[in-house]
Amino acid sequence: MIIQNKRLFSRQTAISRRLLWGFILFSGTSYSVFTISFNAVKFTQNPTSIVTETVMHHHLIMPNIYVCPNSQHSKWRIEHNYPDHNRLYRYISTFYGNGEDHHGEELNLTRFDDIPLDEFLANTAPNLKPLRCKFNMRDCPAPTYRLTRYGICQYYSFDNSTVSIPGPQSSLILYVAYNNSDTTTGYALSKSALFHDFSDQKHDVMLMSQSTTVLANRLTQVTLYPQEYTYLKPHCGTKKLDFFKQYTTEECHVECSYKAVMDKCKCWPPYFPIYKKEYPMCTFSEHARCISKEYNSFNYSTCGDCPKPCHDLVFNRNVEYGEFHEPIQRLIKKYKLTKRL
Ligand SMILES: *[C@@H]1O[C@H](CO)[C@@H](O)[C@H](O)[C@H]1NC(C)=O
Ligand SMILES: *[C@@H]1O[C@H](CO)[C@@H](O)[C@H](O)[C@H]1NC(C)=O
Ligand SMILES: *[C@@H]1O[C@H](CO)[C@@H](O)[C@H](O)[C@H]1NC(C)=O
Ligand SMILES: *[C@@H]1O[C@H](CO)[C@@H](O)[C@H](O)[C@H]1NC(C)=O
């Protein structure tokens, strides 16, 4: 601004250039006046202020973790379990509403309708073998298997354990092996937002395959940063949810989408919670033609009121890939050796 003023009023500057500089100065000033007044109006109408405060937690509760393979179904298991359903594995992406993977074959999806979907999901789940799992330098609890929208995932429940020592020593260390012929590109430790998945636990985290891909022969390091928010009334609120015990904005949206999709398709995909008893389990073709289409194109702005909770704890993620350390190399070697014997 100072330079511009000098030029505007110095005699050497040609008239045309003065006009140009004058114009730039004016438009700059008027723009800033406009934005200031606009913000002032906005502030008086809807005052917002953000106060950030860093609070050290005495104890940080370890969220429960879902580990989901990148592919929801194992190709060899599909072929092994459904030999009469010719080329069923080629219709998997159609089943999830993505692309056409049948290469010009006639699209008769009803020929797979005799397979109950719950059974299909269970029979074709890819296998993950935990090689080593440590948390707080102790062995993890044994995982259980849970059906989710990402297929059957391993679920590690830490029973409200706290992270006692800050730093990598106390973090969760998990090595998992998968069968190459499960057509997985790796396994996924997945999701950006909290995912409660109908459990009692407050802080379950699901890291989705879309956001966290584990690369083969690479060390994947996921760092979770917990952040607690407090919103002031009347800009926050809560609602009772049918599918989730704890209210969050995401879950309000998730519930709204699940209900809308089931109401539209009049059937129930087995990885959704039961909503209306009169909706039967979806068939393969209903899932491909309706559920996946409706879910993938769901418009969340039709959900209406899903207020921000007055207190919220979210986990932000940071993913890094690195070289395997020497102990991991040894572990992999050992595993390969025992497998061969
Ligand atoms: C699709 O497959 C089903 C079951 O195999 C069969 O009954 C039906 O006639 C087929 N429909 C078409 C259009 O080919
Ligand atoms: C974990 O905490 C939740 C809520 O804080 C509680 O309901 C649950 O019983 C606790 N679980 C264990 C194993 O202590
Ligand atoms: C791995 O996949 C092959 C099929 O390619 C199968 O025969 C074998 O049993 C699988 N191994 C495990 C441990 O699941
Ligand atoms: C989503 O719904 C909102 C509200 O009903 C509407 O204004 C908007 O156009 C819709 N968006 C799309 C992409 O359909």
Automatic annotation (TrEMBL):
GO molecular function, one term: ligand-gated sodium channel activity
Gene Ontology CC: one annotated term: plasma membrane
Coiled coil: none
Membrane topology: Multi-pass membrane protein
Transmembrane segments: 20-41
Major subcellular site: membrane
Entry's localization field: Membrane
UniProt cross-references to InterPro entries, sorted A to Z: ENaC
UniProt keywords, alphabetically: Ion channel, Ion transport, Membrane, Sodium, Sodium channel, Sodium transport, Transmembrane, Transmembrane helix, Transport
Pfam families xref list: ASC
Family note: Belongs to the amiloride-sensitive sodium channel (TC 1.A.6) family.
Protein name stated in the entry: Uncharacterized protein
Species this chain originates from: Oikopleura dioica
Origin organism lineage: Eukaryota, Metazoa, Chordata, Tunicata, Appendicularia
